[in-house]
Amino acid sequence: MPVSEPGDPRLADYTSLTDVALRRRLEPAEGLFIAEGEKVIRRALRAGYPMRSMLLTPRWAEAMADVVESSDAPVYVVSPEVAEQVTGYHVHRGALAAMCRTPLPPAAGLLASARRLAILEAVNDHTNLGAVFRGAAALGLDAVLLSPDCADPLYRRSVKVSMGTVFSLPYARLTPWPRGLADVREAGFRLLALTPDPAATDIGTAVRELGNGKAALMLGTEGEGLTARALAAADARVRIPMAHGVDSLNVAAAAAVAFYAVAQG
After folding, report:
1. Residue 109: how many CA atoms within 13 Å on its side-chain side?
2. Which of 15, 40, 156, 264 is deepest in the core (most CB within 10 A)?
């Protein structure tokens, strides 16, 4: 249905998408998240997330015609100008969907079925979080566990950067933190804490020593890395060998390298 007024209450789910503080409060409270772009919307639907509504520009109404026809959710067609006024930015892909959140699985369920895990502590940058999820999915990890203070994987920026892999890779919050790490160990995982510390074990060596055992790779926030409490809970501290005087990598880049190494074991 065409909508011409940016203040139309039917568009409330899409209001001020660039206001991070607002959206962080609003979306979990409302039980929704925003999927942006045709591929991401389709992946969210394939993953089983119910759709609340779609906001499309005329061009994308045609491209998404099959989704529109197969869904009972309302579809609002707006001009690019109205879309920008509502969302607060130029919607390049011209397709947004408000999706319903589903309950997260318990961490225990993921521990029972996984062999290779990523455990993230306080990764609060949505771009980094989305990139870590994309790397974890691409390189064959089975699941991701998040500390309670990690960013929301379903925040629009995380979803976009991950290219929708946050929908296909199971994840859960690990609580209490960091005591919940003991549950990971009891499930048979060796906890490998990634750190730039020169005294840490080369990750390739750690993986060879691991053999066919289960591994949980722990990563911390950009800059500060894992907290002292998380490091103390690990079974081993591992590092990626560096050259040319470089001491560390961006957390998403380091995660991809470490995921590849762990996946080889």
Report:
1. 7
2. 40
